[in-house]
Amino acid sequence: MGRTVVVLGGGISGLAASYHLSRAPCPPKVMLGGSWLQTLEARGAVFSQELLQQQAQEAAATQLGLKEPPSHCLVHLHKNCIPQYTLGHWQKLEAATQFLASQRLPLTLAGASYEGVAVNDCIESGRQAAARVLGSEPDS
Description:
Elements: E1 4-9, H1 14-23, E2 30-32, H2 35-42, H3 49-64, E3 72-75, H4 89-103, H5 112-115, H6 119-134
Parallel strand pairs: 1-2, 1-3
Helix pairs in contact: 1-3
């Protein structure tokens, strides 16, 4: 079976991709974006299917050692789909958390917008939020 490279907006760690590629029978997906995409956009780059496919193939070759071209490729561009924290995010989050506590507002913050965009971060954020709402400590 040939390899498929799919380009989506967002970032990916080469190490994490290598791990999942080695464990999954399905073809790899390559996600590109974040500051790399924003830099190209600021320079006025045109995001053609060919450019994104070329970048994905280069990333797969460099980070995963996949030198053979894919048998087919699907390219999808999703802008602004993964949160990117701005400078001062953690200070703003701490201030919001302190405000909610001091005002005793019945609001709990959870999800990718606050303390991590990865799926495991979101799961942990939800577990901690549920524990706060229930007045208990989350299980480790």
